[in-house]
Amino acid sequence: MIRKTFAAALLASAATLAAPAAQAQETFDAKQTEAVRKIVRDYLMEHPEVIGEAIEALREKMRAQAESEAKKAIESRKDEIFNDANDPVLANAKGDVVIVEFFDYNCPYCKVVMDPMLEAAKADGKVKVVLKEMPILSEDSLTAARVALAAKKLGKYEEAHRAMMKFRGKLDEKTIFRLVAEAGLNVEQVKKEMMAPEIEKQIKKNIELAHALDISSTPSFVVAGADGKAARTLSGAIEGQVFKQLFDITRKGGRLTGAN
């Protein structure tokens, strides 16, 4: 979405630059207009770096705008993001830093990032981890999300979550039920609970919230202080050391290089 916005802004900028030339045609005669065009062309040919500088300036402007819009969205919906009672919570539920992950069970990067994130949160001791099911990759991803939330209702969310995240390869329905059975869940109970209307509602709510935050890929994270302050979004397979740095800087209300 940000890339599309950037492209649109770039085209808008080009149109803005073209406007004076059109206006010049109304003020200058044809010979004068051609002279102005030649001056501009010659300058750009002699200094092509100007184009790169303009594009970079526009990119930075778009980045700042996206950051500002994301912060506004986070502020307006912070209770949904950080304090939804229906969301699974791991680590310290009363932590002074909260990290929210939007993930898909068939996302390989989500699998890679699970242990570093949870280990960093556990080592810190004061981090709340909120997990938001965002099944966007396949129908099997949706099945996995339903199963995980059913497991939460049965008091075994973490067991089901870890079992599916630890599996390397594409999850299908047969594999999903085998894994949760091996994790100690009653498959018949899970199948009964997973079709509950509230589970469907929660998954749709998570996806809508992700869209509102301009989150379109997994894993993506929202990190903030427990009061929702110093919030920012990140995405991708973040390393454990970066999580530690992120927790520390969030407490200080500072900025992490590379954050959106």
Description:
The chain is of the alpha+beta class and 260 residues long. The chain folds into two domains: 2-77, no CATH class; 79-251, Glutaredoxin. The chain has eleven helices and five strands; from the N terminus they run ααααββαβαααααββα. The chain has helices spanning 2-27, 30-46, 49-76, 78-82, 108-124, 139-153, 157-166, 173-182, 187-193, 197-212, 240-251, and strands spanning 89-91, 97-103, 127-133, 220-225, 232-235. Strands 1-3-2-4-5 form a five-stranded mixed sheet. Strand 2, helix 5 (108-124) and strand 3 (127-133) form a beta-alpha-beta unit. Helix 1 crosses helix 3, helix 6 (139-153) runs antiparallel to helix 7 and helix 6 (139-153) packs parallel to helix 8 (173-182). Mean pLDDT is 86; it is low at 1-19 and 256-260.
Radius of gyration, taken over Cα atoms and rounded to an integer in Å: 24 Å
Q: Which strand-content bin applies to the residues?
A: 5-15%
Q: What's the CATH class of the largest domain, please? A: Alpha Beta
Give the helix tally: 11
Which sequence of SSEs, written as H and E, runs from N to C? HHHHEEHEHHHHHEEH
Averaged pLDDT, please? 86
CATH superfamily of the largest domain: Glutaredoxin
Helix amount: 55-70%
**What is the domain total for the residues?**
2
Quantity of strands, as a count: 5
Report how far apart the termini are: 13 Å
Order of neighbouring strands in the sheet with most strands:
1-3-2-4-5
CATH overall fold name of the largest domain: Glutaredoxin
